[in-house]
Design a protein that fits this description.
Elements: H1 4-8, H2 12-22, H3 24-30, E1 37-40, E2 44-48, E3 58-62, H4 74-95, E4 100-104, E5 118-123, H5 142-170, H6 183-192, H7 194-202, H8 204-213, H9 215-220, H10 226-237
Antiparallel strand pairs: 1-2, 2-3, 3-5, 4-5
Bound molecules: zinc ion (ZN).
Zinc ion binds near residues 26 and 65.
Length: about 240
């Protein structure tokens, strides 16, 4: 057992290694715990769930230990989903059902129960008595919807831009500019996030601290003089 004190003194790499060592699913993958494998390649593995909801209930996971979906490398995540497509097809051949519920929970709050990201592939039959995940319908104020959507759109846009830029530089293109976000992107981002704008104008020092604590935000504002930006934004505001 590792004590709290020991844990505090560990590097993130050491903690990750410890998680790998203790993870039940990593033990299954290493063969230290027996399992019933349905499929395995160099990246993913699929085993029968020991508490199946239906006949052929599979767990699909990466062979590397990844605690949550966002940290899985893109090509591995893509391969994982491709594999799922073939598993669903195989279910049809083997069990005469093309219908399956794929249950993905990312994070404990969302219902993720394992420390190793995985998803459930549950073959379904008519009147099998299993619950379908009924998504409740909630109402939100138009203002809230606008805020969520605008924040989401700008974030996804920036991430995809970064992803494409990364792809281009990997495929042997010209070396990427060390500043992945254009001033246009940044202006758009500030415009779409009034709370960020207010902070830069009124509390530039506080905002700098936030940048230090948030690597993603820091990357966006790389090379930007926050004090100058603060003055510029307050002048535009007037
Ligand atoms: Zn694991």
């Amino acid at each position: 057992m590792v004590t709290e004190e020991e844990l505090k003194n560990m590097t993130p790499e050491e903690i990750a290694e410890l998680q790998r060592k203790q993870c039940v699913f990593c033990k299954i993958i290493r063969g230290e715990i027996p399992s019933r494998k349905a499929y395995e390649d160099d990246k993913v593995i699929s085993i029968l769930d020991i508490n199946p909801a239906s006949k052929g209930h599979l767990l699909v996971m990466t062979k590397e230990h990844h605690p949550i979906l966002p940290v899985i490398p893109g090509e591995v995540a893509a391969h994982m989903f491709r594999t799922t497509k073939h598993l669903v097809k195989a279910l049809k051949q083997a069990m005469v059902t093309l219908r399956a519920t794929i249950f993905i929970a990312n994070g404990v709050v969302a219902g993720q129960q394992s420390p190793h990201f995985l998803y459930h592939l549950i073959p379904r039959e008519e009147n099998d008595g299993l619950d379908n995940f009924n998504i409740p319908s909630n109402e939100f104020k138009e203002e809230e919807v606008k805020q969520h959507l605008s924040a989401l759109k700008s974030k996804v846009g920036l991430m995809m831009k970064e992803y494409k830029a990364g792809k281009k530089s990997r495929s042997g293109g010209a070396k990427q500019d060390s500043k992945p976000f254009s001033q246009y992107d940044l202006a758009k981002f500030i415009d779409e996030h009034p709370e960020v704008k207010e902070k830069i104008i009124n509390q530039p020092e506080e905002f700098k601290k936030e940048l230090e604590a948030n690597p993603e935000l820091k990357k966006m504002f790389r090379g930007i003089n926050i004090n100058k930006l603060s003055v510029a934004l307050s002048q535009i505001k007037k």
